[in-house]
Amino acid sequence: MHVMTVCLGNICRSPAAEAVLVHRLEEAGLDHVTVSAAGTADYHVGSRPHPESVAEGEGRGYAFTTRAAQFVVDHFDEADLVLVMDAANEEDVLALARTAEDRAKVVRLGAFASDAADGVRDVPDPWGQPREAYVRMYDQVEDAVDGLVRAIREDRVDEVVAAQHVAR
Length: 168
What we know:
four-stranded parallel β-sheet; 4 strands; protein tyrosine phosphatase activity; hydrolase; Ptyr_pPase_sf; EC 3.1.3.48
């Protein structure tokens, strides 16, 4: 299984989600799952993750090894699951979908959060915000990633994704 995390510029939220997910998958021994990240815009292609995102993530024990990339239609061929951070990212990625199968791979990360039964929340973009926004972002990402890892372990990913698609 290959999971791709996607935000706008691929320097704050999606690399954070990628780092958290890689770490949690390793802890869970789920070595059949790979992870990558991209952004819907080309603003930061080739850049390292945002320093505030890295600082908060490294303080929590995460490693950052990738550089920003832009999400392109070919990523649908590589990814089994495309985790977008917010409704705008979802709309942008879905606009690139060629088929119903492509569309079926796209879900907001918040669909796996512990409070998803109350409605799927977006992961707000912390770019340009104070450090506290990065702290809140990581808290939210960690919660949702923990739910995703549980869903992978319990073979319920398709169920969660389908439930969000019904709500779309």
